[in-house]
Amino acid sequence: MALSRLVFMLAILGFATSCIQVHQQFTINPDHSARVRLTLTMDPDKIDFESVGNTLNRRDELDRAERSLEEIADRMITAAEGVDAWTDYAMEKSVGGKVVVTMTGYIPDLSKYRLYPEDSEGFSNLRFHFDQQDDKQEALTMQLEGINDAITSNKKPKLSPDEIQDHRKRQRKIFASEARETKFMLDPLRITAQLRLPGPVTQVSNFTKPSPREVQITFQGHKLYSMLDLILTDDALAKQAFANGWRFEEDIPLPGDQVNEFLFGKKAPLSLIMKPATRPLFDYAKELDRAKRHPISGLEP
């Protein structure tokens, strides 16, 4: 998912939707089947309306954001890939305008899960890659599509040094013209994932580990904005990023480990190693049967 799709989606859904928090809580079985509890939160208290002037009507924006949150949930339900069923949908609203949407999905193979289809407008998909290294350990690597999954090479750059500088100047001008709106939309954005795993975790890289079988990660929009700004202003990063004509709204062309250092703190993969397990954390077939008998019937228009 290109960065342009994320920023574009936030823009068309309304400024208030930029304060959305996306949380996915995964419970993962040894066969990589999973249950995900998805929570979408829109909190207007996190919005600095004054930063974009007096052109926005707070009430209109909040109403628009509430409708947009339902649209986001509906799009996830109807278009997510690798999900057998969705159930337990609920929306809660507070007096102050905070809206929370929750729902549960059942995933037969987590490595094939996409909350948003490829090449659609939406948040970055979390992509899971499992590697059974031996009978004593299994590795799990996670990527955010369009953010830290670039495939880089040592091929000769397409642009000359002078062309790189000219292209960089054009991209800086474009970024500067949209900086206020882009920063406003990205700053409050949070995408978090919490993983309950079947076996004990013995090693983590860029994850936090609150318990022996649980890890979590938080993607923060303001760190992405700072990284984009640094790429456009730092000579060494600019030379690396613009060698093949990159535009700032496209997928980030830097190596994933380098992006991870900006976003999560360590120049290394977003990964873990756990001990293999055979006992499932939940009965997938039984819960899936219940979910299919109690599907989400549809959201209000």
Give a concise summary:
The protein has helices spanning 3-13, 58-79, 161-186, 221-233, 235-241, 256-264, 284-293; strands spanning 20-28, 34-42, 85-93, 99-107, 126-134, 137-144, 190-196, 201-205, 208-211, 214-220, 271-274. It has 301 residues and is an alpha+beta fold.
Q: What can you tell me about this protein's structure?
A:
The protein is an alpha+beta fold. It has one domain (3-291). The chain has helices at residues 3-13, 58-79, 161-186, 221-233, 235-241, 256-264, 284-293; strands at residues 20-28, 34-42, 85-93, 99-107, 126-134, 137-144, 190-196, 201-205, 208-211, 214-220, 271-274. It has a seven-stranded mixed beta sheet with strand order 3-4-2-1-7-10-9. A four-stranded antiparallel beta sheet has the order 5-6-11-8, with no helix packed on it. Helix 3 runs antiparallel to helix 4 (221-233). The protein is globular.
